[in-house]
Amino acid sequence: MDLTYIHAVAAFSGSASGTLATVLTGLFTRRRKDRALRRSWATSQCQELYRSFVEEASRLYVDALVKDTSETSKLVDLYALIGRMRTLSSDEVIEAAEKTGRLIIETYLSPNKTTSVFCVGWEHPSRDAVCRGLVFSGSRCPCTTF
After folding, report:
1. Rounded CA gap, 116 and 145, in Å?
2. Alpha-carbon 60 to chain mean position
3. CA distances from 105 to 85, 86, 93, 110, 122 (A)
4. Which of 26, 6, 7 shows the shortest CA–CA distance to 18?
5. What's this model's pTM, rounded to 2 decimal places?
6. Three-state SS letters, 80-102
7. Distance (Å, rounded) from C-alpha 127 to C-alpha 113?
8. What are the DSSP calls for the chain, one per residue?
9. Pick from 31-45, 57-71, 105-119: least confident
10. In the chain, what are the domain boundaries?
11. What does the alpha-carbon distance between residue 47 and residue 90 come to, in Å, rounded to a whole number?
12. What is the pLDDT, as a whole number, of residue 114?
């Protein structure tokens, strides 16, 4: 075999391996970026869905506390959000969302609550200041009337 062929094959294989390494590195880098982009998009979708669910559930729960009857269309919106959560969320999250929906329905079926019930679970740093302000002003504190 001629020595020039060996040099030509060595040069070609070096060039081919360098090109292959560059192409593969580009593919792997692009794939990693796409995966990170999809993951961040899915996370933002979940956060938006959870935000909508919390807002809707909170609104319905407060509505259930002060009213005995519910509008079915409002509950349908909540269960539509739970349905969307089924495609994106884990089983624990879906179970918690369904438990929240059942709690809202049970609250609609229970008697209405008064303002004293709202203050019982209120654990906010300014709660005591609000109560003291009401006591000092001569009013009766709604947080202590059980």
Report:
1. 6
2. 18
3. 19, 20, 19, 9, 22
4. 26
5. 0.56
6. HHHHHHHHHCCHHHHHHHHHHHH
7. 20
8. --HHHHHHHHHHHHHHHHHHHHHHHHHHHHHHHHHHHHHHHHHHHHHHHHHHHHHHHHHHHHHHHH-S---HHHHHHHHHHHHHHHHHS-HHHHHHHHHHHHHHHHHHHSPPP-HHHHHHT---TTHHHHHHHHHHTTPPPTTS--
9. 105-119
10. 3-113, 114-146
11. 14
12. 62
pLDDT bracket for residue 110 (50, 70, 90): confident
The pLDDT score that the predictor gives to residue 99 is 93
Both tokens assigned to 54 = 């919390």
Are residues 65 and 105 in contact, defined by beta-carbon separation less than 8 angstroms? no
Q: Which two tokens stand for residue 42?
A: 């899915």
